[in-house]
Design goal:
This is Aldose-1-epimerase. InterPro entries: Aldose_1/G6P_1-epimerase, Gal_mutarotase_sf_dom, GH-type_carb-bd, YihR-like. It comes from Paenarthrobacter aurescens (strain TC1). GO terms for molecular function: carbohydrate binding; isomerase activity. By secondary structure, the protein is mainly β. The chain has one domain: Distorted Sandwich (Beta-galactosidase, Chain A, domain 5). Helix content is 1%, strand content 47%. The strands form 7 sheets. The protein has a 9-stranded antiparallel β-sheet, with no helix packed on it. Strands 16-25-24-21-18-19 form a 6-stranded antiparallel β-sheet, with no helix packed on it. The radius of gyration is 18 Å and the shape is globular.
């Protein structure tokens, strides 16, 4: 049985696993706000993990940094990509905790294709306003390192089907990707497109597995609202460290249960940033980076 930690405050309950620092359960007054997964087993579909030191994909598991080519293991063989970083297989270590908060840490690298050393810290804080997560990365080596991060929750608005959920978030463009490998093609405006959710509307049958940008930040925060027509809902906010947002409608081939939650992943950089360099974080020796996000009931 894997180690896990439970937080309770303000009507909320959160369960975080040591493996991957994954958010396994988040409930408000007994209602699921994310798609949970069973205790002690594997983590399906990267649910709730911290994806670092890169979010999303690296094409062919190959990238260059400071004129040196690196090859990380491919873990998405059907698309020949390296997916969601190196931290998710790791058991994170409890640094400190109390009734409403906990901090888990892990060290990433040096390892095959990532000859750098990052000290990661994930702090989870629960109060009457929801679950707040802060991830800090510190470069513990004497050379610069490439870095990116995102969370990977699948949000649940309520008991109605996902097609009926009403989605709203302020992003004016999205990253078009290749249909076979989901690798970047170019940024496209959402105006007149099925991906325009700047005004609240039902998701319908639209299939999304794309990164959005041109995100509006109000007072330093961006916000997403997901509502069930039955009256319940879930929201997510994040800070300006994450100018990209991956949305995925969790479409699966039969007989696998499909569209059971909406993946909402605020990202510091877009897919394949280790190759494009787009908003890739360069962590100098000894430097740190912090990203923050919150999930709450509506």
């Amino acid at each position: 049985m894997s180690t896990e930690f439970t937080l309770s405050a303000g009507g909320y309950t959160a369960v975080v696993t040591a493996r991957a620092a994954a958010l396994r359960v988040l409930q408000f007054e007994g209602r699921d706000l994310i798609v949970p997964f069973p205790e002690g087993g594997p983590i399906p579909d990267y649910r709730g993990v911290i994806a670092a030191p890169w979010p999303n994909r690296i094409a062919d598991g190959t990238y260059s940094f400071d004129d040196v080519e690196h090859h990380v293991p491919i873990n998405e063989p059907e698309r020949a990509t390296a997916l969601h970083g190196l931290a998710f297989p790791l058991d994170w270590v409890l640094k400190e905790s109390d009734a409403g908060s906990l901090t888990l840490t892990c060290t990433v690298g040096p390892t095959a294709g990532y000859p750098f050393v990052l000290e990661l810290s994930a702090r989870f804080m629960l109060d009457e306003a929801g679950l707040h997560t802060q991830v800090m990365a510190r470069n513990a080596a004497d050379v610069a390192a490439p870095y990116g991060v995102c969370p990977h929750p699948y949000l649940v608005a309520g008991t109605s089907p996902l097609n009926e959920w009403v989605l709203e978030f302020a992003a004016d463009s999205f990253l078009e990707v290749t249909p076979d490998r989901l690798l970047p093609v170019g940024v496209v405006g959402v105006e007149g497109h099925a991906f325009d959710f700047r005004n609240a509307r039902a998701i319908g049958s639209t299939e999304i597995d794309h990164a959005f940008t041109g995100i509006a930040f109000d007072g330093g925060l961006a916000r997403l609202a997901l509502r069930d027509p039955a009256g319940t809902g879930v929201g997510m906010s994040w800070d300006e460290s994450c100018p990209w947002l991956q949305i995925h409608t969790a479409d699966k081939p039969a007989p696998i249960p499909s569209r059971i939650g909406l993946a909402v992943e605020p990202m510091t950089c877009p897919p394949d940033a280790f190759n494009s360099g787009t908003e890739l974080i360069r962590l100098e020796a000894g430097a740190s980076h912090t990203a923050s996000w919150s999930i709450y009931a509506l």
